[in-house]
Design a protein that fits this description.
1% of the residues lie in helices and 33% in strands. The protein has one helix and 47 strands. InterPro entries: Secre_tail.
Length: 685
Amino acid sequence: MKKNLITLSLLAIGISMQAQTATILTHLDGTAKMYISKGTLVYNGGGMEIVSGGSIENHGNFMMVRSNSGDDVYRNLNSSGNPVVGGIAGSFVNKLNEPNEYGEVNENKSTSVPKYTYGQFYIDGFNQDKITGAVDIEFRQNSHGDYQQMGLPFSNKVFSTFNQSTASNPTPAQIALGKTFNENRRSKNEILIWSNDSSVFQKVLQTDATTCTSCAADLIVTPTAYYIFGGLNLNVSTVTRTLSGVPVATYLNGSTSNTAYTIITNAGGSLANFGNNGNGINSYNERYNSYIQDSFNESAGVWTGNFGKNIYQFGNPYMTNLDLSQIANNETNGDGTYLDGIYGVRLEVQGVQYSALSGGGSSSYKYITFGDSSAGYQPAGDVNYAMVRPMGTFAVKMKKDSPTATLDFGKLRRFNYYSRAAATPYTVTAAKNVTNTLKQLGVIGLDANGKEIERTYYVVSPTTVSGHTNAPTVQVTVGGGYSFGTFEEDAINGGYDLSNVSYWLYINEANEANFKGKNIKLVNYNPNIVSFKFEIRENAATIPTGSHALSSGEGFYYKAEGATTASQALQDQVISVQPGNSNGVEYDLYYGLPTGTLNTTDVSKKSRTLVVYNADTNGYFVRFDPNWKKADIQVFDMSGKLVLSKKDVNANKDYNLDLAQDVKISYIVTVVSEKGEKVTSKIIK
């Protein structure tokens, strides 16, 4: 699955649920290990604590939202049960799923499968003083050059903790950025923070933290700050780095937002005197024209008018994506962010170079600009980059004399890897709303003229059941006369459930979480079926023609018998297939791309001999596989007593089982062909 909603209060395995105080909903003991798979959405409606030794490995999406009690906390405890201020590294880790794809951009549309995904952590409603536990984040970025541009999703993290530890066997979090930074400006080893008002990078002290109490008074320090880290001997591309710290909260207190930045009219660069042709000097005796770049305004004139002014640089303060696609749009049901007068956004800085003689700058960026009201203030340009990754950065350019506006980062968070449509009401999972969608693949068997002969369905959701169950949710078995359908799946390994081959299915169900990437067996015995057509629905609505991905980002796949790779099933796609035959032609169906080596070894086809209930007679009969000629039938009651035995039964027609109808008793029916094929079925009255 891609988005399986799990409410933590319902989990029991390896997790001890604590109800002793109002502050904690979920408690993970020191032996508890929780794995959140890629695409899974876990919801925790309250506080959480993790004891030393316990851990959560997050490949998907984790939401922790404050309950109505208001005093919820997120914290780590030591083995004695005491809170650990600053948290315990490794207790909660956001993992990279495809670390080598860090340089790939995810296509910004709902039908595309993202190339680069990662665990995301969303915490909302908590005051910052209620969050003392640690969250680790794995990350990679393209190398930016002499200085790496970063947002920091940590509260009050000391800058020296970005250095590699001197411990003999450092943990990934202690390795941090894999080098040692210093405080020597222009050394490519220092850490700097951008001042939007002064248009300058200011130095930070190693002993200071992301609150930056040592920074100049004119610097408005917020969690949305834009940092650069000296790039000398820094490798954050080919090596996965792990940083640990206390995550940023949405509130400083119950009413004050922690990550809402007010863009005041003409404030960007307001304290900087660029001078004639940018020859003005900043507080570090650096000329502005040695580093100020403004491609938004360059065509209107360098160092004239709005050039270099009203630029605001930001870092992503959260461990979730930020969606910038609608920040120019005054939406009725949107994210609440409306930057009236925005010109555009600058992203994905590349080629950062610095020279003591000529200053610093970047060789390339990506740009998004916004249309006017006639275009609905929609983005243009590099819209694939509108989703800013955790630890990513961007800059906003406002037009001259733009009105004061607020960029509320907390309302831009998004688990999706594509942007929210303007008409879609905002939520962190907007346009993905995957809490309980029913995803369905219909496989329609067509004859040579394209006429439908038979069809079968494979359905998944967060609540449907994998494998044989006594409590199916949507599953329907196929009646007599069908020659096209699926068999019950092995819930653990996929493929045939060898203990339940006496029936097959018209609608087959599996759970999108625990059965993702595993196969069910589709078998065609009908020689008139020479092609398949795929029909894909979500909550009964068809997805667009030619589409594969569902709202979860996953989709259905198929594999022909003998093939070594699985192919995407596309809406309304028609594929040619081998005609069915008496032995059956096998296909594999998947929800989610299978991993590992696909099995190409032929396995014996399962018999289609079924024990069928006849509602007209309130009795049972045996319907034989068309390949069978003769059969032996034995029926036992549950005590093991033989109640019926027939030899050499003609398999060309149904055989009625002569069983007492007025006795409420269960039976075991065993049917054996002349070739020794055996089918066992249970009758429950």
